[in-house]
């Protein structure tokens, strides 16, 4: 996302420190990964932005195209002070519903964004403790927010918190990647996908990322 204004700075990207070890582990354990990983060179998962902004973008982008989501996000972020790459929950709560609707947000997404902001402002989500919480505990906090389901929470774990061992079984791209690479294109059940994924532990997020890349050479971004 291009930052707004001449004074806005680009949010730095962070790469997981476990990535190289994960690639070695997966290559030793899995014949598909051994062939797939070298195809993408030095590409790595990257995290950028902050927790609230990342989740707000996920809500804005629900059920619309990437292009449309970017357009709505830019108009929404323009209502707030500072950078489009980092918005504050307090700022969202100060906006009127009319202004948010005017930016192209549906009434339901306005409600979702306000609920998200209220959770962050009230401390209902323990952002500073996420580093010591396990994945399921974080998912439990996130799905209590309106508009955030398990899939969104799992994407957040992978792309923002860069948790190494997430297996998003509700993700159609993961299921297709497993189908294409392990089952010669035959449809796979969640149980079959879980069985394949269990062999990737403790780096299931990394294997998932490479399967996404096998479907689309452009890096997956969230």
TrEMBL record:
Q: Which reaction does it catalyse?
A: Hydrolysis of alkylated DNA, releasing 3-methyladenine, 3-methylguanine, 7-methylguanine and 7-methyladenine
HhH-GPD domain: from which residue to which, for each copy?
60-216
Q: Which top-level group of life is the source organism from?
A: Bacteria
Pfam families in alphabetical order: HhH-GPD
Q: Which InterPro entries match?
A: Alkylbase_DNA_Glycosylase/TA (IPR051912), DNA_glycosylase (IPR011257), HhH-GPD_domain (IPR003265)
Q: Name one GO cellular component term.
A: protein-DNA complex
Identification of the protein by name: DNA-3-methyladenine glycosylase II
